[in-house]
Amino acid sequence: MLKQGLEELGFSAELIERVLPKLNSYINELELFNSAYDLVGADTHQDIVVRHILDSLAPYSHLKNLIAEMKELSQTDSIEIADVGTGGGLPGIPLAIVFDDVHFTLVERMSKRCVFLENCRAVLQLENVTVKTLEAERVPQNSFDIVVFRAFRPLEKKMIRVLLRILKPNGKLAAYKAKMEKIQAEMEGIAQWAPKWDVLPLRVPFLTENERNLVVIPKP
Predict the structure, then answer these.
(1) Cα torsion angle, 82, 85, 90, 91, sign
(2) Rounded CA gap, 184 and 197, in Å?
(3) Are 104 and 131 in contact (CB under 8 A)?
(4) Which of 11, 19, 43, 215 could form a cystine bridge with 6, CB 3.0-4.6 A?
(5) φ, ψ for residue 125, nearest 5 deg
(6) Beta-sheet strand order (sheet of 103-108)
(7) How many other CB atoms sit within 10 Å of the CB of residue 179?
(8) How many of the other CB atoms lie within 10 Å of CB of 123?
(9) Model pTM greater than 0.85?
(10) 57 phi/psi in degrees, rounded to 5
(11) Tens-level pLDDT at each residue, the chain (220 residues)
């Protein structure tokens, strides 16, 4: 199922061969420690694969283009991405496995989850990952080229200000969101801080009944 999903997302055969072992190892870690660390809401192996791994990787092509854009703007191949409120490492760990030439910082305030994340980093040999046990408000400003955000809660005044603050100039926030009508309502509420934004439709393999979108918000 995972391999088929990656194929549907446009992954090349070479890339699938490279990332599949580590993605499967990560799934094993999630299944092993989920009950102890309260990592993901999933009842079955299929739920983890579809609702968490493939959902995290659904914007693969969009993020690939965004990373290329950031490299061109900054005139460097050294791109910094943060996954804020990463929880059990989603979407940060699947993205770090796929984009192994990009450095990812996983920001999580709960120390017990960070223990799990550090374990995953070691087990999966993710040299491009750093785990930070702290709240987003304590992240230094102008730290990242891209900030990804998957927690299913509304974007509001305090949160958007914090997330935009930690972006570098010309940086962008990539927020995983669901229904377009809710996105529009949220963005209207924070128009003062995020006047420009784009919505990129996503398709999650095997989850066609659920609407998914990526909201890309540039730092003003």
Answers:
(1) negative
(2) 10
(3) no
(4) 11
(5) 55, 50
(6) 129-133, 103-108, 80-84, 144-149, 167-177, 212-218, 198-202
(7) 12
(8) 13
(9) yes
(10) -95, 0
(11) 999 999 999 999 999 999 999 999 999 999 999 988 888 887 799 999 999 999 999 999 999 999 999 999 888 889 999 999 999 999 999 999 999 999 999 999 999 999 999 999 999 999 999 999 999 999 999 999 999 999 767 889 999 999 999 999 999 999 999 999 999 999 999 999 999 999 999 999 999 889 999 999 999 9
Q: How far is CA 162 from CA 138, 141, 144, 159, 219, in A?
A: 9, 9, 12, 5, 11
Residue 42: is it exposed, middle or buried by C-beta count within 10 angstroms (0-12/13-18/19+)?
middle
Contacts of 161 (CB under 8 A, 6+ apart): 193
- Is 74 exposed, middle or buried, given 0-12, 13-18 or 19+ CB atoms closer than 10 A? middle
Tokens 């005139």 correspond to 75
The C-alpha atoms of residue 194 and residue 217 are separated, in whole angstroms, by 7
The pLDDT value recorded for residue 8 is 96
Q: DSSP state, 140?
A: P
AA identity, residue 150: R
Q: How many C-beta neighbours within 10 Å does residue 196 have?
A: 11
User: Is the Cβ–Cβ distance between 39 and 33 less than 8 Å?
Assistant: yes
